[in-house]
What does this fold into?
Amino acid sequence: MLFARTCTRSTTATHGTARRSQELERAVEVLKPEDLLRWIGDQRDPALGTGLTVGTVIRGLLQHHTYHEGQIALLKRGAEYTT
It folds into this structure.
């Protein structure tokens, strides 16, 4: 039962992740190369996401989304073995 609920939740999460990835893709498409080098804030503050370039933030978001997609895939695989 736990894996069945997880699978349903993971399907919802997958759709949410895909939607956010598409939103990010649309936002990045309009950027110029010099936009990627623009700094966000002048001091590093991880909580605010400042002190990084726009390109660094985008790469971080892509890595973050990919990590969670991997987690979802592992949960789905686990659900397949128990059903």
